[in-house]
Structures are given as structure tokens and as C-alpha cells.
Amino acid sequence: MPWPLLLPLLLLPAVSGAQTTRPCFPGCQCEVETFGLFDSFSLTRVDCSGLGPYIMPVPIPLDTAHLDLSSNRLEMVNESVLAGPGYTTLAGLDLSHNLLTSISPTTFSRLRYLESLDLSHNGLAALPADSFTSSPLSDVNLSYNRLREVLISAFTTHSQGRALHVDLSHNLIHRLVPHPTQASFPMPSIQSLNLAWNRLRAVPNLRDLPLRYLSLDGNPLATVSPGAFSGLAGLTHLSLANLQGLPQLAPHGFQDLLGLQVLDLSGNPKLKWSGVEVFSGLDSLQELDLSGTGLVSLPEKLLHHLPALQSVSVGQDKQCRRLVREGAYPRQPGSSPKVVLYCGDTQESAARGPDIL
Fold first, then answer.
1. CB within 10 Å: which end of the chain, N or C, has fewer?
2. 137 Cα distance to chain centroid
3. Residue 8 pLDDT more than 90?
4. d(CA 36, CA 239)
5. CA atoms in the 13 A half-sphere facing the CB of 208
6. C-beta separation of 33 from 67 below 8 A
């Protein structure tokens, strides 16, 4: 076999994995995935879901990378339970669908390699300030709990700048406490934050977080006023869909979102705004979803306020895309090409006539 063909075959086992099962605690399933040349490296995923609270602390293999303890009616998990052999090197831990009502600042302090933590579908009412400082977390799911007030600083992790994704949706949150300006510990590296379906009546103060994705869907926001998104120039995706009550968009309410590329305002039939100045400052916006807002025709001069806009969803199943009509040549000095929005039913292949703005 020629060398160019032989080399990829020699390297293949080093980048692919094989899955096998191994003996495990009664009722659990242990799945082993091997890596490297001649399967020299292995990681084990242990699934002990749905067995009941009697299993804690369950013995697990020393090379366990992910442990699933969901749906076990667990009422308490503490530091000593998570300190046994195999636990301290976990990369993923699933405690969802249990009966947890509280955690302590030291609950996860021994898990110094933990990257993914799922605490969703429990009864947590509070989150201690130092809950995750010992772990290099990149994904924390706290959705479907009973959290009311949350400290932003509670998500300070041992991540060394790693992007953190936080899901706080479907709680009872009415207030987020900002990160202290004079704090001795660093700003949490939250890049994705889901606050959908909580009880926020105003856009929370998230100033200086390195956010790129933010969802406030389903909250009873009363208004979006100038300064609401101050300090979030790096945000690229904002969702304000299905807001409760009578949301109102004030002029220049989004002016601080210089890098925003996607804005979702769908599902707001009672949404009110006072002209296209609402979108002032959104020079990077490419996608705008206005479907389900009661807006049938597009406001005049919309494209003048949104120079980078490529597509708009409006009405029901109606999609508009930005096109440039070059016009006659030679073009007069200083003139610019005419920009139009071609709108058509998304359920049909044939586009309808253009809406020219």
C-alpha cells in the first residue's frame, strides 16, 4: 500500500472511539468509549437514572466522565456524597428531575473538572454566591426551578475565561443582582443567558457581561427604554418573543446593541412602538422577526435605519429579503443603488411583488 494511503489508516484509531459496556452498579448502565491508538484511553458514561434515592452515594468506575442521576427523587446532594472515587474527576453531572430544594456553596467544591451541570426540574429556591467557583463549568442548566432572585456573581467559575452558557428559564425570577463593580473576583464569563418565562418587568442590568445570546421571551416586560441594554455591545442575538402584558418599545431603546445581528420580536400582538426610531443604532442587524406582532405592512424608511438588514419576517408566513436594484448605468456621481425588500409567502415558491422602501 502506498504511504499516502497508509498514513490515514494508521491515524484513524487515534481520532475515533469505540463503545462497549462494562459491569456496573445494579440498575445502572456503564458505557465505555475508548480512544487513541490501540484503544489506550477510555472514558465511561454511567446512567443511574430512575432508580430511587437509595442509590446515593452510588459507586462508579474511576474513569467516569459523565454521571446521570436524574429522576431519582433525591432531596439532598452534598459535598461528601460527591467526593467518592470517580466523582472528583467528573466532566458532566445530571441531577435533573429530582426533589432538590437547596444546595450549599460547597456542594460541588470537589468537582474540579466539571464542565456540564444539569439541575433543571428541581425545587431550588436560592443559589449561593460561591456555588460554582471550584469548577471550570461551560454549561449550567437551572431551568424549571423556583428561583426568585439570582446573583450574577453566583456564576463565577474556575473557567479561566471559558464561555459559559446559563439556562435560567421557567423560574420565578423577578430580579437579577448585578455583579459588584468593586468585586475582587472576576466578572462571570456568561456568553449565553436564557431568562425566558420568568417574572422580569424590566430588562435586568447585565452590564459588561460578555453576552452574545440573550433570551427574555415570555417575561412581563413593560417597556424597552434607552439604556436598557447598556454595556452589551457584543450581543449578537436578542429574543423578546411572546412578551406578556402590553410591551412598549421606546425610541433608541436598542441603541447600545452595536453588534446585534438577530432580533426576534415575534408573538407580540400587542406590541407598541413610536416609529422606526425604535431600531436606531442597530447598524449590524441582519435578521428581524416581526411575525405575530400585528404588523401587516413594513414601516417606511425601515431600511434607512437598518443598513445591514437582509431579511424580515412579518405577518403570517411572509418573508422579506433585501435586494439591491442597480438601476441605469452609468450611475450618477454620488448616487446610491435603490434597495428593495422582496416579500413573499414562505409557503409558496413564487415571490410576490416587491415592497420598496
1. N
2. 14
3. no
4. 42
5. 9
6. no
Q: How far apart are CA 343 and CA 322, in angstroms?
A: 9
pLDDT computed for residue 12 by the predictor: 38
Cα–Cα distance for residue pair 87/325, rounded to 1 Å: 62
Q: pLDDT tens digit string along 153-201?
A: 999 998 767 899 999 999 999 999 998 776 667 889 999 999 999 999 9
Q: What single-letter amino acid sits at 303? A: L
Cβ-Cβ contacts under 8 Å for 279 (sequence gap 6 or more): 254, 285, 288, 302, 305, 306
292: its cell numbers: 405575530
| Opening angle at CA 356, ends 352 and 357, nearest 5 | 145
What is the number of other CB atoms lying within 10 angstroms of the CB of residue 275? Answer: 13
For residue 4, give the C-alpha cell. Answer: 499516502
Beta bridge partners of 21: 31
The C-alpha atoms of residue 305 and residue 84 are separated, in whole angstroms, by 59
Whose cell is 443603488? That residue is 337
Question: 25 by DSSP, 3-state: which?
Answer: coil
